[in-house]
Amino acid sequence: xxxxxxxxxxxxxxxxxxxxxxxxxxxxxxxxxxxxxxxxxxxxxxxxxxxxxxxxxxxxxxxxxxxxxxxxxxxxxxxxxxxxxxxxxxxxxxxxxxxxxxxxxxxxxxxxxxxxxxxxxxxxxxxxxxxxxxxxxxxxxxxxxxxxxxxxxxxxxxxxxxxxxxxxxxxxxxxxxxxxxxxxxxxxxxxxxxxxxxxxxxxxxxxxxxxxxxxxxxxxxxxxxxxxxxxxxxxxxxxxxxxxxxxxxxxxxxxxxxxxxxxxxxxxxxxxxxxxxxxxxxxxxxxxxxxxxxxxxxxxxxxxxxxxxxxxxxxxxxxxx
Length: 321
Known about the structure:
By secondary structure, the chain is an alpha+beta fold. 29% of the residues lie in helices and 33% in strands. The longest helix has 18 residues, at 165-182. Keywords: ATP-binding, Nucleotide-binding, Sulfate transport, Translocase, Transport. Residues 3-233 form the ABC transporter domain.
């Protein structure tokens, strides 16, 4: 179901946390709330869930004003970073819990739980306890438990934040596939730009309690609204007073129109890519090139080279940033 947040403000004491926030979440979409710590992401998620009430503004879920509704009346599922599993219950009972307290028939509960455990690839672990699962398996159990009551909206607050990097990568791929199967409107909080770009249909960039930009991952990455968004959504470097993506920089031995002279400070080989660290005047910069380009130019510390943004590449002036 679609979510509309309109002109929401929220303060804790005298500290503003959300400032005139307005976003639209399309029905059936997967939307990431992305930004630095303290930017208001989790508070906005909690406002949508009904766990916090805004000072001003409205929240509509499926066209219904839910601003003052309790979480129970919003039909939302919520998964926190630290999955609050019932340690004394099996995986099956953890997933079944929400259905049991709603007094659903036992046959219906069993059918629903087993469908979900199969969906999250835990059907062979139904009789295990949370302590017998890995972190990734416990998080999948938490997602199954949230989905058991068939929420209209699924809200995830940094669901993979407590997991190691490799498990995070596996689970975000799994989350995207899961979403494509169940099509529940999903909003998740993350400060990991790679996670947001890989998983989400839409990214909402938040900073200091305000929305900086909303768009598809490609739009936000390729056409950032301001220097903050450009810096936050991937690597950048500065050349001639402009922010440029390091992979969008041309490096040559000879001067070209619009190029700047630079001195190679360090050459770092990272698999099939090479990071060339430069000194341009009194500023540090860097360029990302292929191993082939680095070998062709025979780059070594102390060499003088020339750099400029590739024609047609996106750059942002730092004036006024």
